[in-house]
Amino acid sequence: MVETYDAFSRFDKSLPQLSINEDNMARNLVPYRERPSEAMVTILRGTGWVHPEHGPGHDFVKHIGREAIKQKCHLIDVALRDPNFSELYEKRLTQKQRDILGGRVENYTGSALERARINLRKVKNLFSTMRN
Question: Considering the chain, what percentage of its residues have pLDDT values greater than 90?
Answer without folding.
Answer: 44
